[in-house]
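can u pls check wat happens w/ pyridoxal-5'-phosphate
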Amino acid sequence: MAFDHLPEALQQLANKSLLRARSVVADDYDAVIKVDDRHYINFSSNDYLGHRQHQDILQSYVEGLSRYGAGSGASPLVTGHTTCHQALEDHLAEALQREAVLLFSSGFAANQAVCQALLQSGDTLVSDKLMHASMVDAAMHSPANFLRFKHNDLTHAEAQLQRASGNVLCVSEGVFSMDGDCADAAGLAALCQQHDAWLMLDDAHAFGVLGDNGLGSVEAYGLNQQQCPIVMGTFGKAIGTGGAFIAGSQVLIDYLLNHAKHYIYSTAISAAQAKATLTSLQLMQAGGARSQLQANIAYFKQLAQAQDLPLLPSDSPIQPYMLHNPEQALAASAGLKAMGLWVNAIRSPTVPKGQDRLRITINATHQTKDIESLVDGLVMMRAKLA
Ligand SMILES: Cc1ncc(COP(=O)(O)O)c(C=O)c1O
């Protein structure tokens, strides 16, 4: 029978505690979710600034919906690109001091598109070892050479840049999605300039979080378009809506517009989403939620350090609690849920084998007492698993 290996493949995952399943969220407001008739404080959302429920953003959504309808109705090169999309692109280009911006329906699509459109046989993609699956998957399907450097290791990055041939694209995340640490973006930019490579930063978790105005790694490290020719940012995390963008030179954007299949052959995000996203960016640049986010991260770290919890070093909203095997990670997550604390277990292949963990995310809507409850819960869970 065709595909009769599927049940066995699923069973094997279950045997290794690596089977994935979803939870159905019935209600969701600020830091509280309701699942299976129970409420939990949510420490797994990427809504770092709490923008998903912001009244001004919701109002913009409603205005966009009533004026432009529920969906865009077409791909951007047909009739899916409206004044709302253009205004969002123009705003981002000006804020990031780039010549142009192109919107994508997701960060996954944007990363794949850049790889697919720019890299040809004989070219090289040089990437941090912990780069997100959207880029690694694109690299695997690309005819270009693929060289990885040890995580955040500039000496190894330079060695790989020396080995690279053809047009060289060097990619790193700004804030790493699973470890929460930052790339040395300035160091990478300098190396790329020395070796005639283009630096691309995937700022999915840095955008909205780093920089005086929340504009991410290029703002935090002062990198201009020459130093970082490609910036990818997503709207589904700190911005609280969905979709993504690529920012860079006019030539880059024109080239993608003509070659990136994920852009050309895909329905545009809705005008309402673009309008709401622009409102979210304006709020983000005003900064109130970001200072609350930083205060919450600092408070969590202070309490966690006092309890000697095994966290990876991170100043970002992503605070990984290491457990090193999938069974322990699942048990810890279940134990916390029993206490009303929602923290997802992250297992391989999302993280390397043996680096299973709880991925704790702190956001601006957490109250002091939420953070205190989390640390108490982690301490109790650690004692239980010992
Ligand atoms: C580092 C990184 N890049 C890209 C993506 C993909 O972004 P999106 O969720 O918009 O597809 C994610 C999301 O998980 C991510 O963490």
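The chain has 15 helices and 14 strands.
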